[in-house]
Amino acid sequence: MSRDLTPPSSDSALQQARRWFLESGDIPAGLVTEALQQSWLRSRHAGLSPLEHPGHSPTCDDAELRQALGTQREFLAHARPVMDFLFDQVRDCGNLVILSDARGLLLHALGDNDFSERADRVSLRPGALWHEHDRGTNAIGTALAEQRAVVIHGAEHYLARNSFLTCAAAPVVASDGQLRGVLDISGDHRSRHPHTFALVRSAARMIEDRLFHARHLRDQILRLHPHPEGLGAVGEGLVALSDDGWVIGANTLARNWLSLSDGRIGCGTLEQLTGLRLGQFPPGRIMRCRLPHGDAIHAKLEPRHKLVVNLSEPALRLHEPESPAPSASRPPTVPSASASASAKTDAKIQDAFRRACRVQAQGIALLIQGESGAGKEVFARALHAEGPRSNHAFVALNCAALPETLIEAELFGYVGGAFTGARREGSPGRIREADGGTLFLDEIGDMPLSLQARLLRVLQDKTVVPLGGSKSFPVDFQLVCATHRHLKEAVRAGHFREDLYYRLNGLTVTLPALRERQDFDELVHTTLSRTMHDMGNPRTVTLNPGLMQAMRRYTWPGNLRQLNALLRTMCALLETDESALDWHHLPEDMVSELQEAVRSPEVASPTPASTADTFMAEANLKRLSGQAIRHVIDATGGNMSEAARRLGISRNTLYRRIKQGLD
Q: Domain of 266?
C-alpha cells in the first residue's frame, strides 16, 4: 500500500536524526520512519556522501537519451497527455512534473520557468539519472527502489544539496506487473501542498490504464468497481483475459482487489486465480459478485473490439463491432487475417496487413518497404499487437540513427567494461530485450556490412553473444525489418549481404506513399481530430475545400510524418473562435508549395502494380522521391537542416540520400 515517508515528528527531530546518522551511522528510534531510515542506509551503501558534491552529476549523453526516448516511445505517448493534464492542475505554483523510466532516467518534464531554473542546478531535467544509487533518497529513486508511491520532503533527501525540494512520486506499472517508470511532482519545500501526493498517484493510475488499453486491444476486458456507476470511469479495476479465460493482464486496482500478485499474471485462468468464473459474466451486462475475501463488487465483461489498422498515427484505431463477436473465437496463436477491414482505409495497406499477419503467425521474417515517413514502424507495431507475441516486448532500433560504433553495442549488448564509456553492469542489447516478442530493425539497408554478418549468425544459431563476452544467450523473436532502399540493388552493388537478404525477406510488403493512398481525406480528418484532442481542445474542426484540394495534389515528400507536423502547426495557429483551417493557418513556405500543387497538372491516381512490375514501380517511386527532395532543397535555398525538417527525416538521412543519387 502507498504511504508517505514523511515522519510524524518535527523538523527538529529530522535534523537530529541527520546529525546522528552523519556522526555514528545510526539513528535513535522514533526520530524518522523505518522506511526513510532504510532508504538512507541504501544510499550510504551505494557510496554516496550526504554533504559532498560529486565531481559530475549522473547523466547520460545526448545519444543515449535519444535512444532511451526511442525505446520508450509508447510509454511517452501515453504518459504525455496525462502529464499535460497534471501540469494544468499545478501550473504557476512553482512545480515540475517529471517522468522517468525504470532505471531512474528522466525522460520528460513540464515546469514553471522560475522553478525549472532552480531544478536545473541539481540536474532535475531530462537525461539525468535519479535512482537511489545515483542521487540517494529522493522521491523518484525511492519510489523505484520500494515500488510504491512516496513523498520525500526537504531534509529527508539524502543529499543535502537536494533539501530545497519537496517531491511526490508514484510508480507506473504495466498490466503484466512490470515497472515502466515513475511519475513525479517536484517543487520548493516551502510550498508543499498536502494534495500533491494524491494527484500524482491518480495521474500514475491514468497512465497505467492508457497502457493497459493499448496493450490489450484484442483481449476480453473485465471491468470491476464497488459501485456499478464506477464501471467505465477513472478508478475502475481492469482485467485482461485470453480467449480461453487466462488472466494475461490487470491494472493496479484489480490486482489489489483480487489479491492477485504480479507473479501470478499469466499463470492461470480467472477461476483458478480468483475463484470467479468467466461464464458468470454475460458480455455487456453488469453483474454483482463476491471477491475471494468476501467483499461485494460489480463486474462487466466488455465485448471484443475489432482492430483497424490506420497508419496515420502511432496508436491503433478501434471501431466497435456492429454485432456481438462469434462464440467460436480464433486460437490465441493465430492472428486474425480479417482484422482491420474498413472501407475507408487504403485497400493496399489492408491487403498487406492481412498477408503479413498470415506469415507472422508462422514465425516468418517480414520486410516492409516504403518511403521515409510512410508509416513502416506503425505498421510493424500493429502487426505485433495483432500477433501471437503481443503480450511480449516490441523492441525497435533504427539502424540509420546511430553511428556504426554504437549499433553493435545497442543491438547485441555488451558486458561491463567492454569499451570506454561502457556501463559497469553492461547491457543486454536490443536482441535479448526482444526475446519472446518482436524485434523491429528500421532502415536495415543502412546496417554496416560487418554487423550484417553478426546478425546473420544470430538468426542462424538463435543465440547472441554480447560485445566483449564469451557466453551465448538463447533468443527467440519475430523479426520485422524496414527500409526505404531497394535491397536487391544494394545486394547487386555489394552493400548488402545476399544471404542475409534472403533471411530477412520471408515476405516483402510495400507501403504506399501518402500521395498514392486512396484514403487521403480520411487520413487528414482522423489526424486532425486526434491532433486537436492531443492539444486539449477536442472540438470539431474542418478544412477549407480549396485547401483540401491542394493538399490532395501535393507530393508530400515527408509523407505521414510531414502531414502530422503540418496539421499540428495549423491547429496551434487556430484562434479560439475559429472552426475551420484555411490558407492563413499554413506556414509561409507551405503556402507557396501548395499553391504550386494547385497550378500543376493533376496526376492520375496510381493503380496497383502487378508482381512483374514491382521492380519498375519501386524504381519510379525512388525517382519521384528524388524529384521531391530536390524540390524541397530548392525551396529552402539549399538550407539542408530546414529541408530535412520539412521532409520529416534527419539531416544525416538526407545527406545519405543525396549521396546515393536523386535520379
A: 216-302
Whether residues 552 and 405 share a domain: the answer is: no
What would the mean pLDDT of 405-416 be, rounded to a whole number? Answer: 83
Asked if residue 359 and residue 262 are part of one domain, the reply reads no
The DSSP 8-state label assigned to residue 613 in this structure reads G
* 8 Å CB contact between 115 and 187: yes
Burial of 75 (0-12, 13-18, 19+ CB in 10 A): buried
DSSP 418-446: SSTT--TT-B-HHHHHTTTSEEEEETGGG
Do 539 and 497 have their domain in common? no
Burial 14-49 (b: 16+ CB within 10 A, else e): bebbbeebeeeeebeeebbbebbbebbbbbbeeebe
Give 591's contacts (C-beta < 8 A, 6+ positions apart): 583
Q: Are 131 and 125 in contact, with CB atoms under 8 Å apart?
A: no
Q: How many CB atoms lie within 10 A of CB 396?
A: 22
pLDDT in tens, 223-240: 999 998 888 887 899 999
Residue 538: all three cell numbers together: 477536442
Whether 236 is in a domain gets the answer yes
Q: What number of helices (H) and strands (E) belong to the chain?
A: 24, 21
Q: What is the pLDDT of residue 625?
A: 59
Q: Are residues 560 and 578 in the same domain?
A: yes
Other CB atoms within 10 A of residue 659 CB:
8
- Grid cell, residue 520, equals 487521403
Buried b (16+ CB within 10 A) or exposed e, 585-601: bbeeebeebbeebeeee
All 3 cell numbers of residue 140?
A: 523518484
pTM above 0.70, yes or no: no
Q: 480 and 542 share a domain?
A: no
- Of the residues 570, 599, 628, the one at which a domain ends: 599
466 & 615 share domain = no
Q: Are 453 and 496 in contact (CB under 8 A)?
A: no
Residues 456 and 525 both lie in one domain: no
3 state SS of 43: helix
Q: What is the SS3 assignment for 185? A: strand
Instruction: Confirm if 240 and 249 have CB atoms less than 8 A apart.
Output: yes
Least confident stretch, 6-20, 29-43, 267-281: 6-20
Contact assessment for residue 378 and residue 314, using Cβ atoms and an 8 Å cutoff: yes
Q: Is there a domain that residue 6 lies in?
A: no
From 395, 440, 389, 305, select the one nearest 75 (Cα to Cα): 395
Q: Tell me how many domains the chain contains.
A: 5
Contact 154, 166 (CB under 8 A): yes
Kind plus residue range of the DSSP H or E element containing 166:
strand 165-173
Boundary of a domain, candidates 285, 302, 319:
302
CA atoms within a 13 Å half-sphere pointing along the CA-CB vector of 464? 25
User: Is residue 321 one of the residues assigned to a domain?
Assistant: no
Q: Which three cell numbers stand for residue 250?
A: 490487470
Q: Which helix (H) or strand (E) holds 479?
A: strand 478-483
Question: Rounded distance, CA 301 to CA 220, Å?
Answer: 7
Note whether 38 and 166 are same-domain residues.
yes
In a domain? residue 3: no
pLDDT tens-digit readout, 59-116: 888 888 888 888 888 899 899 999 998 988 888 788 899 999 999 999 999 988 778 8
Q: Please check whether residue 128 is in contact with residue 59, taking contact to mean a CB–CB distance below 8 angstroms.
A: yes
149, 204 Cβ separation under 8 angstroms: yes
What DSSP character marks residue 100? E
